[in-house]
Design brief:
About 20% of the residues lie in helices and about 25% in strands. A hairpin with a 5-residue loop joins β5 and β6. The strands form two sheets. The protein has a five-stranded antiparallel beta sheet with strand order 1-2-9-4-7, with no helix packed on it. A five-stranded antiparallel beta sheet has the order 6-5-8-3-10. The protein folds into two domains: about 1-165, Jelly Rolls (Sandwich); about 170-208, no CATH class. The chain contains six helices and ten strands. Bound molecules: 2-acetamido-2-deoxy-beta-D-glucopyranose. 2-acetamido-2-deoxy-beta-D-glucopyranose (NAG) binds next to loops. This is Germin-like protein. Keywords: Apoplast, Disulfide bond, Manganese, Metal-binding, Secreted, Signal.
């Protein structure tokens, strides 16, 4: 066997280590996170409480300009997910509200619990796939595709999603352009928006 084959075999074995050697690896948030996730919390200190996440309880306030609230059960908030390749989020949308176009490092499935939501994604050929989802409907957003949810019903909407990564990330396109440190002149160049439009967007996010 040449060295490359040996290296590939060892890489594959290394990526299977968690499955073979440990039942679970609850993340130790006091240590730095690496590309593979967190180091494991001392298993003698792990209890049932580590495996239960209660952050989805109750009503969620909706205060942003888009009219949504997303509660993320990713591994930094729910360390028992560490190494297991799965996570969840709760989506609350006020009447007329939207989760703005965004992406993750993973795929995502959504299930609608309350209300009526237009959900969709846009592929790399700019083709949009979108549909009005009713209670109980499920839709998949394939890995890394830009996607969105809009409440088109007459009541607040509620949905849950699951993602096939413990730390799938959440990158919101509009805030990434206008809510951070990107200079307005660059935002203008890379979007073709006018100076006035960029200024209006930055004002919405308090960065003008
Ligand atoms: C989401 O809801 C929680 C709980 O009500 C609240 O603390 C948080 O500020 C809300 N976030 C947004 C963006 O409205």
């Amino acid at each position: 066997m040449n060295n490359r084959v040996v290296f590939i075999i060892f890489s594959l074995l290394a990526s299977l280590t968690l499955a073979i050697e440990l039942d679970f690896c609850v993340g130790d948030l006091s240590l730095p996170r690496g590309p593979g996730g967190y180091a494991c919390k001392d298993s003698s200190k792990v209890t049932i409480e580590d495996f239960v996440y209660t952050g989805f309880r109750g009503e969620k306030a909706i205060t942003n300009a888009f009219g949504y609230n997303v509660t993320l059960a990713f591994s930094n908030a729910y360390p028992a997910l560490n190494g297991l390749g799965i996570s969840m989020a709760r989506l609350d949308l006020k009447v007329g509200g939207a989760v703005p176009v965004h992406s993750h490092r993973t795929s995502e499935v959504i299930i609608v619990i309350k209300g009526t939501i237009i959900a969709g994604f846009i592929d790399t050929n700019n083709k949009a796939y979108y549909k009005t989802l009713e209670v109980g409907d499920v839709m998949i957003f394939p890995e890394a595709m830009l996607h969105f949810q809009v409440n088109v019903g007459k009541i607040p909407a509620l949905a849950f999603v699951s993602l096939n990564g413990a730390n799938p990330g959440l990158q919101l396109t509009t805030p990434s352009l206008f809510a951070g440190n990107l200079p307005g002149e660059i935002a203008q160049k890379i979007t073709l928006l006018s100076h006035a439009e960029v200024k209006r967007m930055k004002k919405i996010f308090g960065t003008a």
